[in-house]
Amino acid sequence: MVKITDVARHAGVSPSTVSYALSGKRPISEETRQRVEASIRELGYRPHAGARALASSRSNVLALVVPLRTGIHVPVVMQFAVSVVTTARRYDHDVLLLTQEEGEDGLRRVADTALVDAMIVMDVQLDDPRLPLMRSLDRPAVMIGFPAEADGLTCIDLDFKAAGEACVEHLARLGHRVVALVGSPPEVYVRQTAFAQRVVQGFTAAADRGRLASSVHPCEASPAAAREVAEQLLREQPALTGVVVHNEAILEPLIDAFEQLGLRVPADLSVTAICPDEIAGNLRVPVTSVALPSAEVGTRAVELLMKKLDSKPVPEATLLPPRMTERASTAPRNAP
């Protein structure tokens, strides 16, 4: 491992001069600074994090705030986290992962220290109690998700409203007239989680425009709950032929439940979903789906932060359009 003394010897200066070049604590000539920097590059020296922070007034650490609340699907959340961490490393930044449900107090605790340079905040609610603090922070922040009032914030996400619309419109084009949304666990809606609410908005708007009969059913993330919802749907909507699923954990159990109740997919029932491609494409019946672009969202959230750290302008709102892949789970309605 290259040491600061190796850099000093190579540049023909004292170790303290190298330290001053890194920290900026004392003035040195421009010629000496350039010689030290050239030696650092040639030898591949990586300054200690503390020295980098002193030199740049930055910690080179980003905070990723992901409160692991009940009702969220942790494997999908971790896809976002991996993307953020991987992209941050490309910018020579580490990531501090905050998973506790600490709300505004937790954000303030981190913001009031020198631990992080900037923040990415997930699990955004429509009326998120963290918004006033987010707007007053003295460091850059990006939200993955859109609150009801996003003015003055930097937000990025899949356009979940358009995703809900796309699923219904696909079913309508295939002739389906009675559809249902099987959604996230009930507590997700109670919290007014933004992405779940926007799927409902898009689903309902598209069904109303197309004059389709529709209903919305929250569902716990368990096979037993999927079976209960399937039974309820067939009891309350016997003419049902199209289902939109926004709950990765119950996608396969729900298809199994419908088939056990006598409905074949897609001959009798067409199923679409909003979920990661790797889930939709690898089921026993591959499901037509709108992809959840976790890698792209995480990458672009970090890129937005890097621009903000460099005082470059960024758009307040970045909505990624839905991308649907048709698979074996949807077919034209088998009209009587």
Short characterization:
The protein has helices at residues 4-11, 15-23, 30-43, 49-56, 74-90, 103-111, 131-136, 160-173, 186-190, 194-209, 223-236, 251-260, 277-280, 294-309, and strands at 61-65, 94-98, 118-121, 141-144, 155-158, 178-183, 213-218, 242-245, 270-275, 288-291, 317-320, 324-325. With 336 residues, the protein is α/β, with parallel strands linked by helices. Strand 1 (61-65), helix 5 and strand 2 (94-98) form a beta-alpha-beta unit.
List the helices and strands and how they pair.
Layout: H1 4-11, H2 15-23, H3 30-43, H4 49-56, E1 61-65, H5 74-90, E2 94-98, H6 103-111, E3 118-121, H7 131-136, E4 141-144, E5 155-158, H8 160-173, E6 178-183, H9 186-190, H10 194-209, E7 213-218, H11 223-236, E8 242-245, H12 251-260, E9 270-275, H13 277-280, E10 288-291, H14 294-309, E11 317-320, E12 324-325
Parallel strand pairs: 1-2, 1-3, 3-4, 4-5, 5-11, 6-7, 6-8, 8-9, 9-10
Antiparallel strand pairs: 10-12
Q: State the end-to-end distance.
A: 75 Å
Mean pLDDT: 90
**Care to count the β-strands?**
12
The largest sheet is: 6 strands, parallel
Strand content bin: 15-25%
Strand order, sheet with most strands: 2-1-3-4-5-11
Estimate the global geometry from the Cα principal axes: elongated
How many DSSP H or I helices?
A: 14
Order of helices and strands: HHHHEHEHEHEEHEHHEHEHEHEHEE
Structural class: alpha/beta
